[in-house]
Every structure is written in C-alpha cells, then in structure tokens.
Design a protein that fits this description.
Keywords: Amino-acid biosynthesis, Methionine biosynthesis, NADP, Oxidoreductase, Threonine biosynthesis. Belongs to the homoserine dehydrogenase family. With about 375 residues, the protein is α/β, with parallel strands linked by helices. It has 2 domains: about 1-165 and about 355-370, Rossmann fold, CATH 3.40.50; about 170-350, 2-Layer Sandwich (Dihydrodipicolinate Reductase, domain 2), CATH 3.30.360. The protein contains 15 helices and 13 strands. The strands form 2 sheets. It has a 7-stranded mixed β-sheet, sandwiched between helices. A 6-stranded mixed β-sheet has the order 9-11-10-8-12-13. The N and C termini lie close together (about 10 Å). The relative contact order is 0.14. The structure holds NADP nicotinamide-adenine-dinucleotide phosphate and 2-acetamido-2-deoxy-beta-D-glucopyranose (NAG).
Length: about 375
C-alpha cells in the first residue's frame, strides 16, 4: 500500500468537504493501492499535528470530529488530545512545517483563502513536497513569487483555482504541451456574475437580481466582492500565466460593476443595498437593449488574447456557448490552431464546496506517482 502523507491548510467549507471525501473514498483508494494519511491540519490560528509525522495519522473518527468542531466555529486548538495530537501557533507552526518538509515528502494542500501561505508552500515544494491549491492567492502575487513557487512545476496542481472541479487547467496544459497555439480564451468564470447577467437579460432590474442572488447565497456576504470583478481577474491571471504571459494583477483591465463612490470603504453595505444598487439599473438596461438590437447578449467575461487579459462586460453572439449560458454555470471557450472555428468548450458548476473539494482530491491522486 502506498501511503501518502497529507497536511491540510484551511479547514473551512472546502477543507472540511475534502476530509469528508477522503474518508468516504477509503475503499476506492485502497483498491488502487493508496492510503491518504492525514497528519496535520491548519486553521487561521493553529497547526494541529500528530506527534510523529513519519508514521502517525489522524484516524477517521478524529477527522470527522475536527470537521464538527470547526463547523461549530471553534478553533483547532480545542482538538488537542495528549499523545495523539499537538498544536502550534504562528510563528512556531511555520517552523514546524518547514522542519517536517525537510525530513519527509508530503502533499501540502492549501484550502485557505489567505495570501499568507505562499512562503510556507514555496519552501515545502522546494524541499521536495507536493502542493495542491484551491487557494488562488499564492498564484496571483508577484511574478517573482510565482516563479519561485513553480521551480518544480511537476509537484504542483491547482485545478480548483479556476472553475472549481471543472477540468480547465488540465485541458489548457494538454493543449499547451502538444504545441497547439492558443489564440484566445474567453470565459464566464463567476457563477454569481453568470447568474446576474442571464437574469437581467430577461428584463429584471439589475438591483433586484443582485439582491435575489444574495438571498440565494450565490454571492459573497457583501455582493460588491463579486461585482468588483477581482475574483474573475485572479482566475484570468492564473490562466494567462499558464499560457506563459508574464503579467501581474495590475496589468489586467478590470471593469467593476459599481463606481468608485460606492466602494466598501466609502459606502456601507446597507446603504449600497438600499440606495446605491438601484442607481446602476438604467445603465445596464441601456446596454442590454443596445446589445439586443445587434442580436447579441451581454456576459461578464475574462478575455485573454494578444498577450492581454481584460475582465468586464462584453457583447457576445446569442448562439455561442457563452451566449447560451443560463444560470450559475461557468463556461470557458478556448480557441487554438486545433479548435479554430469551433472552440473547445468546458461548461459546468464552477463553485461549491463539493465540486471544489473533489477537484482537490483528484489533484492529490494525480500526484501519487511522485511518492514511493
Ligand atoms: N467554495 C468554493 O466554491 C470555492 C471554489 C473555488 C475555490 N475556492 C477557494 O478555496 C479556498 C477555501 O474556500 P472556503 O470556502 O473553504 O473558505 P473558508 O470557508 O473561508 O475557509 C478558509 C479556511 O482557511 C483558514 N485560514 C485562514 N488563514 C489561514 C492561514 N494563514 N493558514 C492556514 N489556514 C488559514 C480558515 O481558518 P479559520 O477556520 O480559523 O477561520 C478557514 O478554516 C479559498 O481560497 C477559495 O477561494 C473555493
Ligand atoms: C460551503 O460550506 C460552508 C461552511 O460549511 C457553508 O456555509 C456553505 O453554505 C457551503 N456552500 C455551499 C455552496 O454548499
């Protein structure tokens, strides 16, 4: 049996779902000769780890207890059981992790939403560990940090950073490594904005659609986090860098769906929802009418073309894959030498704990050959 040690960073919606998937796939993995040995878990405050990382693991009952405790909003610190686990807090936790990485190859899984994990994961991968990311932030900081992280590209997987479990990055990597030139990628990479743009097309006011999306739990607690386009831009940057473009967040043109005067540091969320939002209705309505008179629809997309990446509203043909999009699916169209007239289209749910964690688990399994 091949034993793969796992250290998990982040135990929120995705991290906990990953632990559930790992436990429920025990038989499936055993039939493939693999055992995933979870030996340490981080949250924002602590690092809970087995006393001897080279041989011990958290058993499945303990893992499910951890999920329960974390979903009750408690800290990992409360899970310490003498002889079975110990807890470290920063900066000792980082030192502990690096010491471990120098002695043992494990898979470090970043399911946090933090920009602070980049140092630790870069060190771990350069000490011989593998890294799997659902967290986009380590891939969207400076080009220099990106290069340092990718010194050992074969040890890194990050499928869930764009389109959750959808095989977007795997597909791009296959196209790139076969020498097929990609001319253009255009994608609706936000479930929230996909939903909003298809609903306003039916004539509903923008403000009401955003509020409905918020009530359905489709948006971040402050919908402006989605409407700013920042999250789409991060995904666009990851795709552009995969194509070899050396660019930063500040080289991306991002269209925010609300003006500067309604930014969170200028206007409260309450004021935005009660007064600000409806001031945006007319403009969107005009734009939809104009697009419609051209036989087109509006989509909020990321476009990568001619070494540039733009994020914002575009007019697109009704009958294209993006034009036909309804609801909260993600859709990506890839145009290349092989997919010239008709693009390669990847479509499906692009968010959710379940599919995101499934993408992370598939990445972990994909790295199995690097372990003996
Ligand atoms: N949910 C989705 O649909 C989806 C889709 C694609 C990608 N993602 C990405 O997946 C990641 C996780 O998402 P989520 O929804 O699970 O987020 P979440 O519920 O907010 O969980 C984040 C977890 O990270 C922990 N954390 C914060 N700072 C940390 C640090 N410095 N080191 C280690 N752990 C830290 C938090 O600790 P506490 O428990 O102490 O707060 C929490 O357990 C995010 O980067 C997100 O962008 C999510
Ligand atoms: C993801 O998990 C979090 C935490 O358990 C939960 O609040 C959220 O509703 C879940 N999201 C989805 C789409 O299931």
């Amino acid at each position: 049996m091949k034993n793969i040690p796992i250290i998990l960073m982040g135990c929120g919606g995705v991290g906990r779902q990953l632990l559930h998937h790992i436990v429920s796939c025990r038989t499936l993995h055993a039939n493939k000769g693999i055992h995933l040995r979870v030996a340490g878990i981080f949250d924002s405050k602590s690092f809970l780890v087995v006393p001897d990382v080279s041989s011990m693991e958290f058993n499945d009952t303990f893992l499910m207890n951890i999920c329960q405790i974390k979903s009750n909003g408690l800290s990992l610190q409360t899970c310490v059981e003498s002889g079975k686990s110990e807890a470290f807090s920063s900066p000792e936790s980082t030192k502990k992790l690096t010491d471990m990485a120098a002695r043992l190859a494990f898979t470090l899984v970043d399911c946090s939403a933090s920009s602070e994990t980049i140092g630790a994961i870069t060190q771990a991968v350069n000490l011989g560990c593998c890294v799997v990311l659902a967290n986009k932030k380590p891939l969207t900081s400076s080009m220099e940090e990106f290069d340092n992280l990718f010194l050992q590209p074969r040890r890194i997987r990050h499928e869930s950073t764009v389109g959750a479990g959808l095989p977007i990055i795997a597909s791009l990597n296959r196209i790139v490594s076969s020498g097929d030139t990609i001319y253009r990628i255009i994608g609706s990479l936000s479930g929230t904005l996909g939903y909003v743009m298809s609903e306003v097309e039916d004539g509903k006011p923008f403000s009401e659609v955003v509020k409905a999306a918020q009530a359905l739990g489709y948006t971040e607690p402050d919908p402006r986090d989605d409407l700013s386009g920042m999250d789409v831009a991060r995904k666009g940057l990851i795709l552009a860098r995969l194509l070899g473009h050396r660019m930063d967040m500040n080289s991306i043109k991002i269209e925010s769906l609300y003006p500067d005067k309604m930014r969170p540091n200028t206007m409260s969320l309450k004021d935005f929802l009660a007064n600000g939002l409806q001031l945006l209705d007319n403009d969107i309505e005009e734009r939809i009418k104009k697009a419609s008179s051209n036989g087109n629809v509006l989509r909020y997309v990321c476009v990568i073309e001619n070494s540039r990446c733009n994020v914002g509203i575009q007019e697109l043909p009704k009958e294209s894959a993006l034009g036909r999009l309804r609801g909260s699916d993600n859709v990506v169209e890839i145009y290349s030498r092989c997919y010239k007239e008709q693009p390669l289209v990847i479509q499906g749910a692009g968010a959710g704990n379940d599919t995101t964690a499934a993408g992370v688990l598939a990445d972990i399994l994909d790295l199995q050959d690097l372990f003996t």
